[in-house]
């Protein structure tokens, strides 16, 4: 594949506040190349990469596997911006757009007891009323400090995060200093734009310190891969220039109403001016979720792997009308739909709206959109009515919708860890895979991370990430393996392993790893050596703070432990066939 043209710009449309060239692109998956753009002609693996302020200038700490085309937060610095001074120079609503200065302190997933070196970035945000600001999640994630500055003001005010939505790449901020709000007016939200409607993107991108305005039109409205959030939600594609630092800035229609939030772009050798805006429907869902629950609970999912039914013989065999329905291939065990949907069911309607054989539903006057859009309009805990055909019979079933449970999470703010006589155990995450590299995992463990579903809530893949050398663990060299059992008991998650170690009454700690690799430690000698190992390595505690809490078993049905949950692509963008999709 042809290498992507040089991508220079900082943090996902957030600009690292340094003269150094800092890049932070994103693809459909946060830490690792998990997403591809859903279009058949643009199906490429995407991921986040970042060049931060490090020991070496421009040190790349996130890598990109497929460089032909990528969704990323930053654009080429040479992208020209068009300043429309005639229309917007005197517009008061521009004063509601502010510049965001963030100092980030990201976790160190390889050494989970400490943090990485701090780095800084800048982005954009805007006022929405009630003392709140709206911006992108990737602009303030892992923030140690956030400051905001108004247009025409040199004073920076401290802000704090009220809520952060990773899936929708949205964050809600507040500023307590009343001086910040003096003389300001919040923006008003407009309707979802139509194709070819004019759009104006406002923010603080690279190239200067003052506000910038770029103009374009709406090119497409469809369910889109969200680079930072590992999710598929409604998105607006525009051709206005979006550059590093525009993240979190508003997009306006001709009436001066905010129709969305700039958040990512698509970049490739044969791609020009493709940017994306989070529409007000998604923004409204995020805000109402926060108001309703006092926190962000997420966008729900059915948790079903579906097959499109474009072949007439397939429809006839399953006794389904032509151009109707999608076939259920698998239901996630952690999904509430697991109790009502079965393999072989054909879903023909969702809340009374018919679903076509391509998995789409009517949208506006003459458009169609993936029925995932209907699911995403609901809130966690809502009930949905699903029409299905099972063995030729039309049935209506009801199920609760909830966010998906990932066996290997995409984002993990505070990684858990447990150190037993120098053996460092931690849950496998996309962030850890990104830091350590895929080669270290091996094909078997990597395949499990990419193609396995969680069998119960709270399930994790626990790996031995390293061995801190000491006489007590002599003979057990550094390895990166999944631990399967402790003293004959299957391990469910890191908290379960910690509980098993603490309650062990046997003479030996016996860890069983994949491929029958065995590690045995003398319990008393391990207890004696552990304090010295921690001291020698400058580690403050032998476990993360969350593991001091009492263990609660979240696996309500232990029969699920025997389920085969492998060989299933876990996201739409892991699927090579256009005939399959998750909803």
Break the fold down into its secondary structure elements and pairings:
Layout: E1 24-25, E2 35-36, E3 45-46, E4 49-52, E5 59-60, E6 69-72, H1 85-88, E7 97-104, E8 119-129, E9 132-135, H2 137-140, E10 143-149, E11 156-165, E12 170-174, H3 178-181, E13 198-203, E14 212-226, E15 231-238, E16 250-252, E17 258-268, E18 271-279, H4 280-293, E19 304-307, H5 312-317, E20 326-331, E21 346-350, E22 353-354, E23 360-363, E24 367-370, H6 372-376, E25 383-390, E26 393-400, E27 418-420, E28 423-427, H7 430-436, H8 438-451, E29 462-467, E30 481-486, E31 489-490, H9 494-502, E32 508-513, E33 518-522, H10 523-536, E34 580-582
Antiparallel strand pairs: 1-4, 2-3, 4-5, 6-17, 7-8, 7-10, 8-9, 9-12, 10-11, 11-12, 13-14, 13-16, 14-15, 15-18, 16-17, 17-18, 19-20, 19-34, 20-21, 21-22, 21-25, 23-24, 25-26, 27-28, 28-29, 29-30, 30-31, 30-32, 32-33
GO molecular function: serine-type endopeptidase activity
InterPro entries: DEGP_PDZ, DEGP_PDZ_sf, PDZ, PDZ_sf, Peptidase_S1_PA, Peptidase_S1_PA_chymotrypsin, Peptidase_S1C
Family: Belongs to the peptidase S1C family.
